[in-house]
């Protein structure tokens, strides 16, 4: 489990990664990042989010440029 100071809101996570808050909640629901809901607030593990982003960015690089880009 992530450390207490590792948890950030979906808004903070969005600002950090450029992902939308909805996409971050989707990642959480799919179990791709660590997250927990406290009342109406979703908190995500900054460490697991950044690890996911690094892996996704790496996969994107392997796939190459998109046509028209």
Secondary structure blueprint with pairings:
Elements: E1 7-9, H1 10-17, H2 21-29, E2 35-38, E3 41-45, H3 46-63
Antiparallel strand pairs: 1-3, 2-3
Helix pairs in contact: 1-2
If you had to describe this structure to a student in words, what would you say it looks like?
- The protein has a three-stranded antiparallel β-sheet with strand order 1-3-2.
- 19% of the residues are buried.
- Helix content is 51%, strand content 17%.
- It has 69 residues and is α+β, with helices and mostly antiparallel strands.
- It is globular and about 40 Å long.
- The mean pLDDT is 86.
- The protein has one domain (4-60): Orthogonal Bundle (Multidrug-efflux Transporter Regulator, Chain: A, Domain 2), CATH 1.10.1660.
- Helix 1 (10-17) packs across helix 2.
- It has helices at residues 10-17, 21-29, 46-63; strands at residues 7-9, 35-38, 41-45.
